[in-house]
Every structure is written in structure tokens, then in C-alpha cells.
């Protein structure tokens, strides 16, 4: 039956329209299950009913619809589970439809078609004679429905079935907050790497010249874009273009492409192979921040391909406000449209941490990533883009447009209000000091102009230099990079996390294969197994701090005291070496404060014992939530379970804060929860006085906290610890913020 199952799914997926797909489904299912009738009912969410869409065995002219929960089909849909009856008419929910001719059928087996918890329809088989379908038959139909659900959802989103109704709402990942209301404008003008076919050449030098010219053209373009945005953006966003230029001239990338051309590949094919190899290394990583670098490398390849192919035509100019829809969002796309006309952007591929997303946030352009859409169905249709929730609404009702226009006005007013809180030190309404720090990692995030809005860098990721080379970076190379960061924040702390790399973040020059990289050789486990690498990095950090003394060291993935003590011994050794060298040069160096990331659940039960061994704690709520709930948030099948407001996570956070209080140990939070209004208010109530977040959230969170009395936050957090549902916790905290006069901020500014 596995062969039959595969054949049915493949036949349905290959259908040219919805009618053909459903006809194929019912016909082939009848044959496979040796039944006399098969029907498929699809859910009509607008009318809250199931409609008979195709049948083999009933009257094909019959028009049947039943409300959700009505009849046997409604029961299957409502309960979201199979119903197997030998005598269907004896079931209390049975409802006859004489026009279908179903009077002749006795047995009934129905199963829901479910995609991401949403019931799309019901698949039913029937038989004239009473028949209790056996376990294998029921399993076959359930398996078929599960596979069809994916096919149905994907085909509808991609516009593969022209007979299907256009979607009214598409969901993705929020990448830049804000609201855009305009016509959708689909840009498919960019050449695609995956469409480049293998090709050889007869003129090696000619291809090398083409490649060099394309690199030069792309570099010139990024420099031009940097100059254009020089007065609009801060240094953190402008550095994106500097990084692109740097990568385009990276010896490793350039050499790989050159070697391939010298071996006979055409320049276009050499670019595709090299870029895909580099991109794949990042795409395979677990860390969302580093995973997003795959898109950045791919964008470079796209621009190289653009200049290699040199398309003759260009997309028509935009003259009215639009929401830009693209397969992949690039910096060039954002720059090609006047800011006044670009009300939002939607990308089918990409992540919230990609450089294009960073640039969109810096420009104040709402953005949503990971949206499956059909250009033919959406081009030039009126849409609402909600960058807070990550949704795109197609041809919304006038009342909904009016409501969102009101939100746009509220948002503009709020943003100007947020800025008033940026310069002042972070504090609650009654004066409790709350330090606000930045999370950083690439030059695009770390070369941030010093301002009064932040108290330092709460997390600086050091992995990227290791991932972009053919070898481990030398000590001197690392010193240069770290010193530039420390110099940007004189008299402010910079927390540098040691190398967090391993099985899930493979180095190109150190292959690691593991069955379960999430629980594998990563973080401190990797560096302790390579003390030479660890010592070089720590020495580089210490050397870089000479003259600044604002360095704080952070160890990732600590799961036990033994790892901490071993790391401390190596740090002490590195300090002695650097201190002696500095003394000989007439310099002095302070030993930096040392902290650990609290992200592995096992360390929660050892914090009291290791408090004397560290100077501070830093909570990574992203990984802590992932490990506590056993959920990979990058897995679409379970991503909705990932919730940092889960009661177990809140109780863990409360426990960590209590340890800090008992031992007078500073504790900060550097996960995404710190930048969410609901999360920040709960964290401060739980006892956290240091929050580290992305640049875009600093003003908003400082404004929020300045309007809330600390005592009220403590009381609210205690109440939330008594609840046992994440949704209840979020709703109750939102209601609390609304009662404090902050309803608009939560409504407009919430990112989830």
C-alpha cells in the first residue's frame, strides 16, 4: 500500500488545478482501499462550513455543505480525529442528504486533513455493506490525509491550483516592525543562482576577466549604496555595505571561484558552486543569528550573477506606494525604490537576522520573511503588511484598512515618544535602575556609534571570523577585530562570548558529523577539547583590552562546574602570559570579569554551588527555552510550541534571579525575551536589572519601563508564576500593561 500511497500523493501534486487534483484523489483512493465511494469535503472558513468538493460514488451534481460540527463530517472536523463506523446511520450525529444518493451506503470512515493544527477538510470513504474498516485501512487513510495536507497547503500558497480561491492571509516571520498598506508589487527581475546550469568555456582568461569585472561592479554598487544612505542610517546599518565589500574581496571566496574557472567552469557556474558551498555551511547551523548569514552570502552571489549576466531590461519604475514582494530581499532592492514609496517588504526566503532585514529595520520599513506566495495572484492587489505579527492580508475589507491606518498614526506618534526616553539612563517609574545593553556579532551590529542610549554590549558573538576562513584566524587577526569593538565603547562594558561553535556550526576546515548536533560537540565542549584554540582566543581578547579594561568574558554552554573550573584554569594561564608580555612592554592589564551563559537546564541546579566561581550570569532565553521544552524553534512542525513565556521557563528565570540576589551576583538576560515589551516587564518583575537586546528595541523598552513602578512589576510577575498556560500569561501581562496606559505600545510594538 506504500506504493499506492505515494502514487496518489504524486498524482494529486502534479494536477494542474484544484478540480483535477480532487477528482484524482477520490478516484485513486477508491481503487487503493477497494471501496465503492470516496469523497472530499473542504473547509470554508468564511462561512464556517464543510463543502463537498469531489466524489466518486455519490451524485457528482449534488451541492452539499454542513456547518462545522454538523453531521458525521462535521464531527470528524470538530474532533480532528478519524471516525470509523460500520453502521453510520446509527450514530447520533448522522445527517442524511438524500440528493447525494448516499442512502445506499452503510459504512463510513472519515479522517481530517490537518495542516499546522488547522483542519483544511475531511476525507471520507464509504461502502454499501456494513464494514468496520480494519486498523491498516484506517492507518492508510490517516497517512494519506496527512501527506495531502502538506500538498494542499503548499499548492494553494504557490498558486499551483488556479481553481483554488486566493488566500486572504499569509503568515511569515516578523523581521521589521511596522505596518504597510499599499498595492503589492512583485519583483522577479533578479537572476537566480539555482537556475544557473553547469557550463564550460573555451576562454579561461575571458571568463576570469568577466568574474573580476562583476566583483568590481558589485563592490562599486555597495559603496554607492553606502554613500546614498550615509545621512539616513547609523553606523550599524551602514556597516552592512562595508561588510559586503569586504566579503566580495575575501581571498577565500575569490580563490574558490578563480580555481573553478581555471578548471574549465564558466564564471556563472563557478559563482553558483562557490556561493552555495559557503552558504550551506551557515544554513546548517542551529544559531538563528549565524544561520541568517547564509542569506547574506547568497545575496552576494546574486549580485555577482546579476553583473555577470548583465540583463538588458530592468523592472518598470515605481511611481506609487507599494509593498514589495520578492523571492529574496536584497539591499539593492531596498535601495532601488524611493523610501517614500516603499511601505513594506515581503520575502519568500530569508530570516529576521539577515542583513536585508537589518537594513529594513534601520530604514523603518516593515518586513516579513518566509512567506509563501503566488506572484500571479498578488501582484497589484491591495494588501496590509503587519510587521509586528508577521502577516500579509490580501484585499482586506475597508473597515480593516481603516483600523490599520489608525494604527499607523498611533505607531508614528509612539515612535517619536520612544525617542524621548533614549538618552536618559534606563529606569522604572520609581527610579529603579535598569541597565540596557546591546546584542552584537557582525560588524553590521557592532560598529555602533556611541550614544547615551545603551550601557554597553551585553553579548558580542565571536564566531563569524572563524566561519569565514580556510583556517583558524591567528591571534593577531583576532586582536585587531576585538580591539575595534572594545575601542567603540570606552568606559562601557563589552561582554565577549568565547567561541560557540561545534557540531551544529561546522567550520569549513574542521568537519564534524553528529546524529544530534543540538546536544553535541559545541560551545565550551568544543573549546575545552581544543585548549590551543581557546587559549589563542582568550589571549587575543586580553591583548585587545589593554588600555581599555572594559572586557568581560562569557563562557557558552556550561553544563557543570567541572567545565567551568577547567576553563578558568586556561583563562588564568592566558592571563599570566599576556600580563607578563604587557609588563615587559610597560603596560598593565586587569583580569576581566568572568561569567557563564545559563542556557543548559542542568546548570540551573548547580548555580548556588558555582556562584563563588563567577562574577556574573547571562541568561540565554532562546536556548534555555529550546532545551527546557525540547523544541527546535527552527522546525516548522513544532515551532509554535516554542514560547519563552511557558510556565517552566518563567519559573527557571525566577530561580536564576533568586540565585543572583542570594549571592549578590549580577544577572542579565541576552535572549530575545528582553526586547519584547511583555517579556521585559516580566523579567524586571522577576528581579532582572540588566537587559541586553537588539538596537531596534532599546528606545521602546526604556520608554516602557520608565512608565511602570517597580513594585507593580514585582507583584505582576508573582501573579504570573501562578498561571499554567503561556497564552494566559501573555494575555494577563498585556492586560496589566494596558491598565498602566500602555495598551497602544503592546498593540503596536509586540513582536512574537
UniProtKB/TrEMBL annotation:
Q: Which cofactor does it need?
A: Mg(2+)
Q: Which InterPro entries match?
A: GAF, GAF-like_dom_sf, PEP-util_enz_mobile_dom, PEP-utilizing_PTS_enzyme, PEP_util_AS, PEP_util_C, PEP_util_CS, Phosphohistidine_dom_sf
* Taxonomy, superkingdom: Bacteria
Q: Which UniProt keywords apply?
A: Coiled coil, Cytoplasm, Kinase, Magnesium, Metal-binding, Phosphotransferase system, Sugar transport, Transferase, Transport
**Catalytic activity from the UniProt record:** L-histidyl-[protein] + phosphoenolpyruvate = N(pros)-phospho-L-histidyl-[protein] + pyruvate
Per the record, the similarity remark reads: Belongs to the PEP-utilizing enzyme family.
* Record-given protein name: phosphoenolpyruvate--protein phosphotransferase
Q: Which organism is it from?
A: Salinivibrio siamensis
Amino acid at each position: 500500500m506504500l506504493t499506492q500511497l505515494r502514487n496518489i500523493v504524486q498524482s494529486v501534486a502534479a494536477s494542474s488545478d484544484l478540480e483535477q487534483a480532487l477528482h484524482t484523489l477520490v478516484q485513486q483512493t477508491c481503487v487503493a482501499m477497494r471501496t465503492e465511494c470516496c469523497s472530499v469535503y473542504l473547509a470554508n472558513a468564511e462561512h464556517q462550513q464543510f463543502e463537498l468538493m469531489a466524489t466518486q460514488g455519490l451524485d457528482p451534481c449534488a451541492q452539499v455543505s454542513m456547518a462545522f460540527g454538523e453531521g458525521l463530517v462535521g464531527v470528524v472536523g470538530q474532533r480532528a480525529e478519524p471516525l470509523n463506523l460500520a453502521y453510520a446511520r446509527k450514530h447520533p450525529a448522522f445527517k442524511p442528504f438524500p440528493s447525494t444518493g448516499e442512502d445506499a451506503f452503510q459504512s463510513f470512515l472519515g479522517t481530517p486533513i490537518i495542516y499546522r493544527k488547522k483542519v483544511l477538510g475531511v476525507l471520507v470513504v464509504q461502502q454499501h455493506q456494513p464494514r468496520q474498516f480494519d486498523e491498516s485501512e484506517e492507518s492508510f487513510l490517516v497517512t494519506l490525509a496527512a501527506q495531502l495536507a502538506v500538498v494542499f497547503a503548499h499548492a494553494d500558497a504557490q498558486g499551483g491550483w488556479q481553481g483554488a480561491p486566493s488566500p486572504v492571509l499569509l503568515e511569515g516571520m516578523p523581521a521589521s516592525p511596522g505596518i504597510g498598506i499599499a498595492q503589492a508589487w512583485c519583483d522577479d527581475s533578479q537572476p537566480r543562482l539555482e537556475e544557473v546550469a553547469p557550463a564550460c568555456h573555451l576562454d579561461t582568461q575571458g571568463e576570469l576577466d568577466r568574474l573580476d569585472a562583476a566583483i568590481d561592479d558589485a563592490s562599486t554598487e555597495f559603496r554607492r549604496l553606502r554613500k546614498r544612505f550615509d545621512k539616513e542610517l547609523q553606523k550599524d546599518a551602514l556597516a552592512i555595505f562595508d561588510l559586503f565589500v569586504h566579503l566580495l574581496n575575501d581571498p577565500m571566496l575569490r580563490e574558490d571561484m578563480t580555481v573553478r574557472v581555471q578548471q574549465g567552469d564558466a564564471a556563472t557556474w563557478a559563482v553558483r558552486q562557490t556561493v552555495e558551498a559557503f552558504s550551506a555551511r551557515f544554513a546548517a547551523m542551529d544559531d538563528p543569528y549565524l544561520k541568517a548569514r547564509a542569506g547574506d552570502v547568497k545575496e552576494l552571489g546574486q549580485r555577482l550573477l546579476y553583473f555577470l549576466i548583465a540583463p538588458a531590461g530592468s523592472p518598470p519604475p515605481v511611481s506609487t506606494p507599494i509593498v514589495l514582494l520578492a523571492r529574496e530581499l536584497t539591499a539593492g532592492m531596498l535601495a532601488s525604490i524611493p523610501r517614500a514609496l516603499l511601505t513594506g517588504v515581503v520575502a519568500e526566503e530569508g530570516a529576521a537576522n539577515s542583513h536585508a532585514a537589518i537594513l529594513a529595520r534601520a530604514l523603518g520599513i516593515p518586513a516579513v520573511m518566509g512567506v509563501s506566495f503566488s506572484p500571479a495572484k498578488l501582484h497589484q492587489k491591495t494588501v496590509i503588511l503587519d510587521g509586528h505579527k508577521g502577516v500579509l492580508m490580501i484585499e482586506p475589507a475597508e473597515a480593516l484598512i481603516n483600523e490599520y491606518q489608525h494604527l499607523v498614526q498611533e505607531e508614528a506618534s509612539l515612535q517619536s515618544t520612544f525617542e524621548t526616553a533614549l538618552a536618559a539612563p534606563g529606569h522604572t517609574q520609581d527610579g529603579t535602575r535598569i541597565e540596557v545593553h546591546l546584542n552584537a556579532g557582525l560588524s553590521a551590529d557592532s560598529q555602533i556609534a556611541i550614544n547615551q542610549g545603551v550601557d554597553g554590549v551585553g553579548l558580542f558573538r565571536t564566531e563569524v571570523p572563524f566561519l569565514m576562513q580556510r583556517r583558524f584566524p591567528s591571534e593577531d587577526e583576532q586582536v585587531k577585530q576585538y580591539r575595534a569593538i572594545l575601542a567603540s565603547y570606552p568606559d562601557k562594558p563589552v561582554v565577549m562570548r568565547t567561541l560557540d561553535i561545534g557540531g551544529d556550526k561546522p567550520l569549513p576546515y574542521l568537519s564534524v558529523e553528529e546524529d544530534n548536533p543540538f546536544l553535541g560537540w559545541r560551545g565550551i565542549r568544543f573549546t575545552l577539547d581544543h585548549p590551543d584554540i581557546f587559549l589563542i582566543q582568550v589571549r587575543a581578547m586580553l591583548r585587545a583590552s589593554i588600555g581599555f579594561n572594559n572586557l568581560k568574558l562569557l563562557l557558552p554552554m556550561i553544563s557543570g562546574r567541572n567545565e567551568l573550573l577547567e576553563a578558568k584554569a586556561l583563562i588564568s594561564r592566558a592571563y599570566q602570559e599576556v600580563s607578563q608580555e604587557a609588563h615587559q612592554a610597560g603596560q598593565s592589564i586587569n583580569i576581566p570579569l568572568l561569567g557563564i551563559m545559563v542556557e543548559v537546564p542542568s546548570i540551573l541546579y548547580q548555580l548556588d554551588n558555582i556562584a563563588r566561581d563567577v562574577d556574573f550570569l547571562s541568561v540565554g532565553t532562546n536556548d534555555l527555552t529550546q532545551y527546557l521544552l525540547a523544541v527546535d524553534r527552527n522546525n516548522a512542525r513544532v515551532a509554535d510550541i516554542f514560547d519563552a513565556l511557558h510556565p517552566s521557563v518563567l519559573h527557571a528565570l525566577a530561580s536564576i534571579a533568586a540565585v543572583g540576589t542570594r549571592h549578590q551576583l549580577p544577572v542579565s538576560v541576552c535572549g530575545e525575551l528582553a526586547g519584547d515589551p511583555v517579556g521585559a516587564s516580566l523579567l524586571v518583575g522577576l528581579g532582572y536589572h540588566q537587559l541586553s537586546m537588539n538596537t531596534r528595541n532599546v528606545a521602546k523598552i526604556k520608554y516602557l519601563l520608565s512608565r511602570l513602578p517597580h513594585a507593580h512589576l514585582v507583584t505582576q510577575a508573582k501573579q504570573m508564576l501562578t498561571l499554567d498556560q503561556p497564552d494566559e500569561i501573555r494575555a494577563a501581562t498585556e492586560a496589566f500593561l494596558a491598565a498602566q496606559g500602555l495598551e497602544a505600545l503592546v498593540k503596536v510594538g509586540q513582536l512574537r
